[in-house]
């Protein structure tokens, strides 16, 4: 059984001004699935609940949690210097985004099911102590910490294929040898981190693997990095669980970046991850991050899900 974890309140997080990260992204994903009856028939649609404050504090400081809560309660509409907006519903929505991932973790461990969490706001730029880049809490980082703590897992591998570097996830796990964080991202591009020499510190040294690629990179390069670097690292690390930070903004039609992936590249990348998960008899939790051309987003999500739900 393959879960599609979603909550209608993801449509409530919106900006008062025009913004690429908006509820139309969810609507596009849902209507894309509606149009593919075979895919739809393979998905187990489950609603997500909300994460608790205790859950959030697994990966974030109390100061960050309180700061976000207080600002949103007070009606503040911008949580950082300029691109992480909020509205009155955003705190609940952000807790529900994390809650989706926790649901995916519970079902992965208890029932051996894989999940796609179609969440907003995205998470991979949110650091332990700050909201950033449209992200309020790091959905994947809280999920990974929850899996380590609640289920006493030893090792979790994350692959972040969003076109932007997952600076938040990296920062939260930079000194950990329990999380292998791997990422391919366009460079140069905001937020500017994710250089190959950022490899972790202390016990976490060599548990962060960054693969910056230049504008105009295509799927062949992504697939060769997976085949030659990332999948071998996963084999070495032997994870108990895999997370994908699944942004779809490296698509050639995405308006805010310059990488040239096509839908089929997302299928091929997913196959590598599915194969290693099957080989090791472990589960995958894929969590939506970016993706801002609505057609490219919807088609790429379908390509990704067709492989995971096979
Ligand atoms: Zn992105």
Task: Provide an overview of this structure.
The chain is 41% helix and 15% strand. The chain has 310 residues and is of the alpha/beta class. It has one domain: Histone deacetylase domain (Arginase, Chain A, 3-Layer(aba) Sandwich), CATH 3.40.800. Strands 2-1-3-8-7-4-5-6 form an eight-stranded parallel β-sheet, with helices on both faces. Helix 9 packs parallel to helix 10 (294-308). The model has no long low-confidence stretch (mean pLDDT 97). The chain binds zinc ion. Residues 162-164, 247, 249, 289-290 line the site of zinc ion.
Q: What does the secondary structure layout of this molecule look like, with pairings?
A:
Elements lengths: L1 E5 L17 H11 L2 H6 E5 L5 H4 L5 H12 L16 H22 L2 E4 L21 H12 L5 E5 L6 H7 L5 E8 L21 E6 L5 H19 L3 E6 L16 H18 L2 E6 L5 H15 L2
Parallel strand pairs: 1-2, 1-3, 3-8, 4-5, 4-7, 5-6, 7-8
Primary descriptors:
Arginase, Chain A, 8 strands, binds zinc ion, 310 residues
Share of residues in helices: 40-55%
Question: What is the number of beta strands?
Answer: 8
CATH superfamily: Histone deacetylase domain
Number of helices: 10
Radius of gyration: 17 Å
The CATH first-level class comes to Alpha Beta
Query: So what's the overall shape?
Result: globular
Beginning-to-end CA distance, first to last residue: 9 Å
Largest sheet: 8 strands, parallel
* Spatial order of strands in the largest sheet: 2-1-3-8-7-4-5-6
Bound molecules: zinc ion
Poorly predicted runs are none
